[in-house]
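Posting for a labmate who doesn't have an account.
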Amino acid sequence: MDTITPMNVLVDNITEMIELFTDVAMGEGLAPLLVLIGTILIVFTLGVFGALTLGAIGSLFSANSS
């Protein structure tokens, strides 16, 4: 029963962070555009490094060794 309290705190902190982040992201000026560009950059880099990681793992188990 001791693990329920930290999980509640964690969920509460995550929901509060999401509320604060949406307030900032929907702010005035260029904030929504900057959040969109940042999201695109992060998704692109995660995709590239994910593909590279999967390629490296695949090359470990491939039969062709040079």
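Reply:
Got it, the structure tokens are right above this. The helical segments are 4-25, 31-60.
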